[in-house]
């Protein structure tokens, strides 16, 4: 019985040794050479400004259509705004000044996308440009520097897409 026990113990030790050899820890030089590519890749990603041209408002959202809203006005009750964007890159903008005998102005022209594919610039025949950040079913009017409007009236500078009933 002692021999069976010794034989069993010897087999167990041999198996344990064989399994331990499979999980041999890497040497320091192996670990540093394996880590270098990953560290280089992270550094490259951080150093390079990445613009995702595959997934942006221009090619991921259903942006064409009619947008409406009332934008604040310094000397009237507001500017009722209707903006129609089509897939051919043209726009039609109608603005009605509320409280001023309903003065209405219309403008047509082309619009262009920025490189990031998230902002459009409406350009009319006189070369004037108005910028909007394109969101899901919304257009956010930008200031003259191309920044989102902030402050207490910021939410009023949003046009909302109208959906067909």
TrEMBL record:
Task: State the InterPro entries in the record.
Answer: Cu-R_lipoprotein_NlpE
Q: Specify the domain of life of the species encoding this protein.
A: Bacteria
Q: Which Pfam families match?
A: NlpE (PF04170)
Write down what this protein is called.
Copper resistance protein NlpE
Species whose genome carries this gene: Photobacterium halotolerans
């Amino acid at each position: 019985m002692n021999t069976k026990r010794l034989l069993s113990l010897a087999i167990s030790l041999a198996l344990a040794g064989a399994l331990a050899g499979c999980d041999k820890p890497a040497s320091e030089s192996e670990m540093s050479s394996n880590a270098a590519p990953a560290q280089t890749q992270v550094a490259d990603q951080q150093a390079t400004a990445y613009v995702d041209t595959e997934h942006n408002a221009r090619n991921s959202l259903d942006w064409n259509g009619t947008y409406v809203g009332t934008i604040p006005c310094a000397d009237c009750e507001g500017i009722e705004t209707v903006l129609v964007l089509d897939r051919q890159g043209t726009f039609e903008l109608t603005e009605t000044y509320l409280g001023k005998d309903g003065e209405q102005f219309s403008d047509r022209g082309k619009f262009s996308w920025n490189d990031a594919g998230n902002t459009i610039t409406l350009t009319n025949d006189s070369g004037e440009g108005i910028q909007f950040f394109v969101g899901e079913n919304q257009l956010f009017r930008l200031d003259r520097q191309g920044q989102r409007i902030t402050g207490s009236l910021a939410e009023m500078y949003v046009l909302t897409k109208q959906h067909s009933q």
